Structure formats: structure tokens, C-alpha cells
Amino acid sequence: MLNRLFLLLFLLLLVPSSRAEKADRDKPINIDADKAEVDNAKQTSTFIGNVVVTQGTMVIRGDKMVVTQDKDGYKHGTAYGNPASYRQKREGLNEYVEGYGDRIVYDTRADTVDFYEHAKVKRGNDEVRGEHVTYNSNTEIFQANDQGSTGAPQRVHAVLYPKPKPASGVSAEPVTEKK
């Protein structure tokens, strides 16, 4: 079990980085829903029905979202759905990281997104599936956990595509001139 998890993490480290848009962190978080309940005393807000959370290029969709704020002002949101979804543009590229899970936890302090139950995270054609997948935009690492919510071992699965080859007739080796 540990060998499979170690191999998966090793393979994921070989995949090019997936850094999220840095500018998104400085943008406001907007939440749209059918219904909202705000408890200022507990610093908790609950949004229900067609919930859409946006922060710059980041979008989280779900049936329900519970947002709490810690004493330092950082937000922690938990989205529930069948499944809930996440999408964010990668820094400097025209490519997105997408993820799905029955529960998604977004932590603005740690810059992490955790996907639980039937979790799947994609970057381009590459995909990681498991019962718990974490995406950390600071360290640029995906981690997959094979522990299911019942505690019973589950399998993780990854599909990693090879780097595209250069177009036909174009040499991958540098050309040197002889004098």
C-alpha cells in the first residue's frame, strides 16, 4: 500500500508544476447562492442552492458551502455537492487545474484545496483519483490518499501522459555549426 502511494507521489513530482494564478489571492471572494445564513458571532456563513464561489480565475460550485473565518481573517470554505467542482487557471499558462469531489475544502491561509469522496483532480490530460486528493498551490504538489471515509484501504489511480514530441521535421537537439 505504501509502495503504491510513494510511487504515485514520485510520479506526480515529475509532472510539470501546477501553480495557481498568484493574482487570485488578492482578489475578493464572491459567493452567489439561492439562500444564505450568516452568523456574525460564530464567524460562519452557510450558502445553500446553486452555490458559485469565485476569486479571480478560481471557481468552486456546489449545492452547499459553509464558510468560516479565523481570528486572523483567513477564510475556510467547505463545499458539498454531487459532486462539487473546482477550477483555477495556472500561473502564466492558458491551462486550468480542475477538481471534483463530494466535499471540497478550500483554505485561504494554507492555499490548499482538499477533495474528498470520489475525488478527481485534472491538469491538462493528467488525472489523479482517490478518496482524498490535496492540491497545494504554494508547493505545486498534488497528494492522493488511499484511505476511504470508512477507514478501509482504497486504491488511488493516476493517468500521466508523456510530454508531446516536437513536430515532424523539427530536431529536438540543438544544431551546431562546424567552422
Report on this model:
The structure is a single chain. With 179 residues, this protein is mainly beta. It has a domain at 2-120: lipopolysaccharide transport protein A fold, CATH 2.60.450. Helix content is 7%, strand content 50%. It is built from 1 helix and 10 strands. It has one helix spanning 2-14, and strands spanning 30-32, 35-39, 44-55, 58-69, 75-89, 96-107, 112-123, 126-136, 141-145, 157-159. Strands 1, 2, 3, 4, 5, 6, 7, 8, 9 and 10 form a 10-stranded antiparallel sheet that branches. A hairpin with a 2-residue loop joins strand 7 (112-123) and strand 8 (126-136). It is globular. Residues 1-19 and 174-179 have low confidence and may be disordered.
Short description:
Strands 1, 2, 3, 4, 5, 6, 7, 8, 9 and 10 form a 10-stranded antiparallel sheet that branches. The protein is mostly beta strands and 179 residues long.
Structural class: mainly beta
CATH superfamily of the domain at 2-120: Lipopolysaccharide (LPS) transport protein A like domain
The CATH class of the domain at 2-120 is Mainly Beta
- And the CATH topology of the domain at 2-120? lipopolysaccharide transport protein A fold
Return residue spans where pLDDT drops below 50 for at least 5 consecutive residues: 1-19, 174-179
Number of H- or I-type helical stretches: 1
